[in-house]
Design a protein that fits this description.
By secondary structure, the chain is mainly beta. Helices cover 4% and strands 45% of the residues. It has a 5-stranded mixed sheet with strand order 8-9-4-3-20, with no helix packed on it. Strands 7-6-10-11 form a 4-stranded antiparallel sheet, with no helix packed on it. It has a 4-stranded antiparallel sheet with strand order 16-15-19-21. The model is unreliable at 1-23 and 230-236 (pLDDT under 50).
Length: 265
């Protein structure tokens, strides 16, 4: 039996909305697994951990939350226990993430322990988010983002995308291997990949880009996730390279948030 892993990236506190088109992966390993997805950001109150379990392809796509986990985040000698606010969703407003600090995640599910750590990088200012008329199309719209990469340190970036405050499955990850210390101008792709014309991009729609500075392990996870559905020649997909230790899928990220919005004229 094949199992699926529906990944719904967290929205930030001010955009607390479910992903409109979650990413669905057929896992290489058919054994049901726990899925842990968590984040700490530099925005007040934005600390979340979702604990769920994979489901068979014949089951519904609804979030398969796991109740009763003990979820803790430790940093700088402090340990905070998160509260389960609904089935499988654990939150706290007691952690305001700080760049340079390493955050340690510990999740205990019926005696099984899963751990992860993530160091929050420095904030990199998000300089511009704009759309040229020639880059607008109802099916595929490609606005440009601009930022200045800091020199002297390896940097990794994750751009999340929203249409009318709904988180999209498309995202982009970048590193500065070829652009150290340079101004970076790159495109995001907002796209209707379905045959449902009601999801086409319309004039007056609000596009939002969230720029996150992430650590190398989170970059590796997100990059591998984007390739996890296998190749065009039918090769079996590889599971994403999680930074969760103990055998769970998913990721834990301490990252910064910079956000810009535009309205399609």
């Amino acid at each position: 039996m094949k199992f699926l892993y529906r990944l719904i990236f967290f929205a930030s506190f001010s955009l607390l909305l479910a992903c409109e088109d979650p990413i669905t992966l057929q896992l290489k390993d058919n054994t049901p697994k726990y899925v842990i997805e968590g984040m700490v950001t530099n925005e007040a109150g934005a600390c979340w951990v979702n604990v769920s379990q994979t489901k068979s392809l014949s089951e519904s796509n609804q979030f398969n939350g796991v109740s009763g986990a003990i979820v803790k985040i430790a940093y700088n000698g402090n340990t905070i226990t998160l509260t389960e606010t609904e089935k499988g969703v654990y939150k706290t407003n007691l952690i305001n993430g700080t760049p340079g600090v390493t955050y340690q995640l510990n999740v205990n599910i019926r005696g099984e322990v899963f751990t992860a750590s993530s160091k929050m990088p420095a904030v990199v200012p998000f300089l511009d988010f704009k759309l040229k008329p020639s880059d607008y199309d109802t099916v595929r719209t490609t606005p440009m983002v601009k930022f200045k990469d800091p020199d002297g340190v390896n940097n990794y970036y994750w751009f999340q995308q929203y249409i009318n405050d709904k988180l999209q499955s498309q995202y982009k990850v970048l590193n500065d291997e070829f652009t150290p210390g340079q101004e970076v101008n790159d495109y995001l792709v907002f796209e209707n990949t379905t045959k449902n014309n009601s999801k086409n991009i319309k004039r007056g729609d609000k596009l939002t880009a969230e720029m996150h500075s992430i650590d190398p392990a989170v970059y590796t996870y997100l990059f591998s996730l984007s390739n996890a559905n296998g190749s065009l020649d039918g090769a079996a997909p590889a599971n994403p390279l999680s930074n969760i230790k103990g055998g769970a899928l998913g990721f834990f990220s301490a990252h910064t948030v910079e956000r810009k919005t535009l309205v399609i004229p």
